[in-house]
Amino acid sequence: MTDSATEESRRTNATHEHGWLTESSHQTSEGRVLYVRCAQCGVRRVDLQPHPLLPPRSLSRVQGR
Q: Structural domain of residue 11, as residue ranges?
């Protein structure tokens, strides 16, 4: 990421709370991998849900716009 892209990402994250929508997912030996996108600004990240009764946790940083 360039310095300007990093700065833009920081500004985007500070402006609203992301509401994640799952675009796709698949099962792995570690749990379910979820590819999610923010409904408001369109940024994406990858989450891992280790067990169906546990909430997903982020595996990546927010990317794109």
A: 3-58
- In total, how many domains does the chain have? 1
As given in the structure block, the two tokens for residue 58 are 């982020």
- Beta strands 31-38 and 20-28 are antiparallel
Cα separations in angstroms, 4 against 1, 30, 37: 8, 35, 22
Q: Is residue 65 part of a domain?
A: no
- Tell me the per-residue pLDDT of 21-35, one tens digit each, with 9 for 90 and over: 999 999 999 999 999
| pTM greater than 0.90 (yes/no) | no
